[in-house]
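In response to reviewer comment 3 from the previous cycle, which asked for concrete evidence that the modeling workflow produces usable outputs, we include below a single protein chain processed end to end. The sequence was submitted unchanged, and the resulting structure tokens are shown without manual editing.
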Amino acid sequence: MKRVSKDRYYLNIAKEAAKRGTCLSAVFGAVIVNNDSIVSTGYAGAPRKVKSCMERGECLRRKMGIPSGERYELCASVHAEQNAIIHAGREKCLGSILYLYGAKYSEDGNGELLNAYPCFICKKMIINAGIEKLTANDSEGNLRTYNISDWVKEWQEHSLLEDQEKYHTDYK
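The workflow returned the following structure tokens.
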């Protein structure tokens, strides 16, 4: 048996967290790790005590014909990254690494890895939470690591909209 790397280990835990998700479009799981200890986990799902899209049998954004990657403020789910940050709080996030897993599942249960990358709203929360790095899977199963300070520098030098166009991902 081959021992997995720490990055793969934490991303595998994020994958398990994603299995709790209630989004009909894609599943995402997040794990925040600080000083090699898990601080928090999160998955994409409806706010507490609110019916999820899964329970309702429909996605509001799909029903409204909103293209993938747009108008996340109308999404009924709290994103995995947001839930992990909310559960941890800023103090526990300072200097941490956020692991993000993303996949899309069809009606028959078959999965397809996505280029897991946070939406515009989640990126702002990640920056404000003091998270240092993001490690995520790509559609081939490889790990990608992003330094959050690079996002800040890029946003200082370029339009925030350019960033969204550069990293837009179609999750539908």
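The beta strands are 27-34, 37-43, 97-105, 111-113, 133-137, 143-147. We consider this sufficient to address the reviewer's concern, and the full set will be provided in the supplementary archive.
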